[in-house]
C-alpha cells in the first residue's frame, strides 16, 4: 500500500492527477481509492463532494468517442491522417473570411447599398479575425482544446445561418464580425502540431497544416465566383454553412481529447499580459515577429498591385483572367513535401534564409520584367508564395520551442504581427504604385528581404 501511495504522490507532484489515485497520508487507509483509469485529468484536484467528478466522467465518456479519449500511458498517435484533417479544418474555416470578396457587387444589390458600404463586409470579417487572434486564441493555453475547437466550429456554423437568411445589412455586418472572431480554429490547430507531432516530422506536419490556410483563400475565391456566377450568391454561404457542420462532425469523430496545457495555473488577464511581455523579452520571437510583419506586407503589397498591372497596358486582361492569376498559389501547395523535408533536415535559420532568398529572387525578376512580359509577375507570384511559406513554417518551428506551455500565446503574437503586416502592405503598396508605378512599388518591396538577409 505504501508503494502505491508513493506512486500516486509522485504523479500529483508532477501536476497530473490520476483519477481514483489517493494522495493522502499512508496511515489513513479508510480514505484510499484504488488506482485506475486510462485517462488523466490535468487538474490538481477533482472535487468529489459536489458530484462534479461524476459529472465530468459521465459527460466525457458520452461526448468523446473511445478512440479519441486521452490515455497518458498510450496517447493517441499524431498520424498523417490527423494532420490532413487539421489542414482541411484550416481550409474550410479560414475560407469564411474570403467567400464574400468576389461577390461584393451582388451583396450590394441584394441589400440595396453602395459598393463602398458592401466593402465593409470583408473589413469587418478581418477585424473580427484580428479580435479573435488577440482575445480568443490565448484561451487555447488554458482550456481543453477539443471541446474549445468543437464549440467554436459549431458556434460559427450556427451563426452563419443568419448570414444566409437575414435581410438586414446591419445584422449581416454584425454577424460577419462575430464569425470572423470565432474563425480562429486554424490558429489553434497549428500549436497542436508543435505539441504532439513527432519531432522528426514536425516541420513537414506544420507545412501541411499551414498550407491549408493558403488553400482556404484559393478555394473560397474560386468557389464563390463560380457558384455566384450561375446561382444566387447566398448559395455559397449555405455551402459554407454545411461545410462547417461536416467539419464539426469529422473533428468530433477523430480529434483526440488533448489535455489542457495550463488548467489551473493561468488566468485570462495574465495570459493576455504575457503576450506583449514575450514580444519584448524573447529574442527568437522578436525576430520572428519582425519577419512575419515584413513578409506579410510584401505578400499583400504584391497581390494588391498586380491587379493594377494586369488590367493596364500592355496586358489589359479581363477580370476573369486576373482572378485566375490566384491559381499560381497551387505551386506553393504542391511544394509542401519538398520544403517540409528541408525544414526537418536543417536548422530553422537555414530555412528562413532560403525562404527570404526565394522571395527576393521573385521580387527582383518580376519588378524589372513585369512591365513588358507576363512571365515577370507569374514568377514573382510563385517566388513570393513559396518563399513566404518556407519562412513562415520555419519561423513557427522555431518559436514553438520558446515555451511549450505558451504556444497559443506565442502564435497570437506572431499572427498579430503578420496581420498588421498585411494591413500595412495593402495600404503602402497602393500608395507606392500610385506614386511611381509597378517598378517603384516592387523596388521598395525588394529592399525588405535584402535587409532581413
Task: Describe this structure as you would to a colleague.
There is one protein chain. The chain is mainly α. It has 3 domains: 2-68, no CATH class; 76-266, Growth Hormone, Chain: A; 267-453, Growth Hormone, Chain: A, CATH 1.20.1250. It has helices at residues 2-13, 52-63, 80-94, 104-111, 115-118, 120-135, 145-165, 169-182, 185-196, 202-230, 234-254, 268-281, 283-310, 319-324, 329-334, 336-345, 348-369, 375-399, 407-436, 438-452. The longest helix has 30 residues, at 407-436. The N and C termini lie far apart (62 Å). InterPro entries: MFS (IPR011701), MFS_dom (IPR020846), MFS_trans_sf (IPR036259). Residues 1-37 are annotated as: Disordered. The chain crosses the membrane at residues 77-99, 119-140, 147-168, 174-194, 206-230, 236-255, 284-311, 317-339, 346-368.
